# Entry
Amino acid sequence: MTERRRARVPGLPRVLLVDPYVAREDPMERKFVELYPSLGLLTLGAYLRAHGLEVSMTDLTFARDSRPVAARLRAFRPDVVGVHTKTLTHARALEVAALARAEGAYVVAGGPDSATRTADYLRSGFDAVVPGEGEETLVELARRVAAGEDPTGIPGLTVERNGRLVRGPPRPFIPDLDALPLPAWDLVDMEEYLGRWERSTGERRAAVLTSRGCPFDCSWCSKPTFGRTFRQQSPERVVAELRALKDRYRVDYVRFCDDVFGISRPWIDRLLTSLAEEDLRLRWECLARVDLLKPDLLRRMRSTGLERVYVGVESGSQKMLDLMNRGTRLAQVERTADALRREGIRQFWFLMLGYPGETLEDIEETLRLFRRFSPEEYSVSIAVPVPGTRFYDSVKERLSGRPRSSKGVGGKSLLYEAAYPEKLYRWEQARFGLEAALGRARDRLSPRVVERIGHAADRFHEKVATPLLTGKKPPARVAT
Ligand code: B12
Ligand code: SF4
# Structure
C-alpha cells in the first residue's frame, strides 16, 4: 500500500464508481449515440451493495467536466475509486485518477480500454486494473484496501511493481448470471436519461442486458472482457428486470444491449412466450445476426413489441464477409432484410468499408445491396483496427500513428494504411448518404427523377471521383 493513503472513514468499505463519459465531448453523440447509463457499472454497484459495501457513483454523461468527481470525492471519502474505461474516455479517466489519488483513494480501472492496454493505465495514475469481469474482484479488492492490506495478487487484479506487471491468477466467470442483483439504477439520475428520451421520442427508454459475451469470432471484433465465452440469464430473470423497470420508472421501450440478442433459439422462444404471457406492453429493439433471425422468429418477435433491429450486414461482398470471418451468407442478409420489411420492423444496418482485401468492386457490391433493400437507418464506418484483434495484428505494421481520437474510434477516419486513401472512403461514405437520401425521396419524387439522379451520381463517381481519389481505373458501373 502506498503512503499517500489517508486515514479512512470508519465503517463499511466505501467504493465510488465513476463513468468518465462526457456526452458533450463525443462528436458522435448528437448523431449516433443513444444515451443509457453504463450497465456494467450499475451491476457492479448492485453487487457491491449486496456484499455489504457502501457505494456511490458519479456519472459524468451530462456533466461539462470532471468537477462533480472532485466534489463527490470530498463528500463521500471513498476507500476505492473504480473508473469505467473506453478508448474515447481515456484522457478523462486519467484526470479522474489524478483527482482520486490526490484525495488519497486507491484507484482501479475496469472496462474495455483498460483491459486492452493495462500497462498504459498502470503507468499513468491507476493503482490497479481489473481486465475481466469486475464484480467479485472489486468486492475483494475493496475489502482488502479498507482493511489496510495490499491487494496485489488477488485473482483478476493486475498491478505494477518495480516497472513490471503483476497479474493475479485469472478469476473464473460468475457461472450463473441469475445470481447477479438487478442493476442499481438509483446510483444514476435515471430521470435525466428517461426524460431526455421522452422529450425526443415520446418513449421512456432503458437498456437491458440478458447475456454476457459472444461465441462468434469476427476478426475485427474486440472482446477483451468476456472473450468468446457466452452466458445468459434465464428468461424469467429477464422478465423480472423488465417488470422492475416498468413499475419503478415507467419504462415503455427497451433496448436489449447484448452483443448478439437471442443466440439460443430455445431461450428466445421461452422469453417471447413469457413476454406474451406477462403482457408488459413494452416495445423493444435489439442487435442480432442475420443467420439467427429466421422469418418465423421475426414474426413472433414483432408480436411481442419488437420495433427495430440492428444488424451487422457489414459488406455486400461474400468474399469480404469470409475475410472478416463473419460466418454469415449474403443469402441470409437478403432473407432477413425481406422478412424485416414484410413484418414492418425497422432495420438499422452496420456497414464497414476499408477492411483489408476490399477492392472498389467489393464496395460497389455493398452499395448495390444497400440500394436494393434501402434500410431505414444505417451507419457506414471505416474499419477500426482495435488492439487485441486479428485485424489489428494483420495491419499493425501499417498503422497511421494517429491518436485514437473519437472520430477514428467511431469509424470516421482511417487509422491504418489501407488499399485506398482516406478521402476515397470518405467519398464512399458520402455515396451511401446520397443513396439513403434517394431511398427516402422515392415517396416524394417520381421514380424517373430518382433514377436519373442516381445515374448521374454513379457517372460522376466512375469518371471523376474514382480516378481523382485513387489514380486507379474506374470500377464497373453500379447497376440499379
Ligand atoms: C451496449 C453497448 C453500448 C450501448 C450502451 C452502453 C451503456 N451505457 O451501457 C450504447 C449503444 C449506448 C453504446 C455506446 C457507446 N459505445 Co458501446 N458497447 C456496448 C456493448 C455492446 C455492451 C456493453 C455492456 O454493457 N457490456 C456488459 C457489461 C456487464 O460489461 P462491461 O461494461 O464491460 O463491464 C464489466 C467489466 O468490463 C468490468 N468493468 C467495467 N467497468 C469497470 C470498472 C471497474 C472499476 C471495475 C473494477 C470493473 C469494471 O466489470 C463489469 C461487470 O463485470 C459493448 C461491447 C461489450 N460486449 O462490452 C460496446 C462497447 C463497450 N462500446 C464501445 C464504444 C466505442 C461505444 C461508444 C464510445 C461509441 C461512440 N461514441 O462512437 C459509445 C459510448 C457511450 C458511453 N456512454 O460510454 C466499444 C468500446 C471500445 C473501447 N475500447 O473503447 C465496445 C467495447 C464495442 C466494441 N467492441 O467496439 N454502447
Ligand atoms: S461482431 Fe458481434 S457477432 Fe461478431 S464476434 Fe463481435 S459481438 Fe460477436
The chain has two domains: 14-167, 181-466.
